[in-house]
Amino acid sequence: MSKILDRMHAGEKIAIGMVQLTSLPGSSTFRGGSLKTMIADALGEAMALEKAGFDSVMIQNLGDLPVDHKVSAPQLAWVSRIVFEVANKVSIPIGLNLMENDAEAMISISSAAGLDFVRLKVFIGVMVTPFGLVEGCAHIANKTRNLVDASDVAIFADVHDRTGINLGGREIDPDIREAIDLGHADGLVLTGMDYGESMEFIAKAKRKFLRTPVLLGGGCNEDNLANTLKLADGVIVSSALKDTNSAFGKINSEKAKRFMDLFKKMG
């Protein structure tokens, strides 16, 4: 089983730090770049997060925005190499999220590279995103995981992620239930339009599915960390660690260390 999932089931609070890749070949924004440089950059940030005390790193292709609905062959090849190199040089578990929501690609890469988990942003239902309609990927995620015998790769599913609008207008409660009971998600990632709504979502999920790990997917910082950990089983952190205070930036080692020092006192 996934190491991160095991620890969360054991009652540990988990902090996952984000490593954002620059534009990859095959994406809409790629204008040249070295695979060697991308590996070095990703490894440097992952090692900085590990040194700061993070429990895990998640790698994401944020530089590829705007994205298509499927990963291209060049993207798949370069991401596979990057995450393989990172996973073999840091000791903490590695996760993967591709902005294309391509579950088949994510789980295949994770299986081949020995990764610990994937984050799937549209798992059930249909979302209206800035790049068109994105359909839930629960079927292909489970099918692929079985096909490549990747039961040790955990699926963390977003429900009503703030980067899209849920098509159909349902409340979050039935969609959480379907993600777990029908989609077989191992854990949830919940992120509302603001921090308050995020915590409302997490409270609803924990009341009805106490044994399912729930991560706050965005908006966590030093100021709200204590309140967050009263409900959430862990956090995914990006902007609060960056030199720009936004997802588009470089990891600031001092910010990362300060955040984790605080997290360990409260977690």
Can you summarize this structure?
The chain has 267 residues and is α/β, with parallel strands linked by helices. The protein has one domain: Aldolase class I (TIM Barrel, Alpha-Beta Barrel).
Task: Give an overview of the whole structure.
- The chain contains nine helices and eleven strands.
- The protein has 267 residues and is α/β, with parallel strands linked by helices.
- It has one domain: Alpha-Beta Barrel (TIM Barrel).
- The strands form two sheets. The protein has an eight-stranded parallel beta barrel with strand order 1-2-3-4-7-9-10-11, surrounded by six helices.
- Helix 2 links the parallel strand 1 and strand 2.
- Helix 2 crosses helix 3, helix 3 packs parallel to helix 4 and helix 4 (103-113) packs parallel to helix 5 (138-147).
- The longest helix is centred in the first third of the chain and has 18 residues, at 35-52.
- It is globular and about 45 Å long.
- The model has no long low-confidence stretch (mean pLDDT 95).
- InterPro entries: BtpA, RibuloseP-bd_barrel.
- Belongs to the BtpA family.
- This is Photosystem I assembly BtpA.
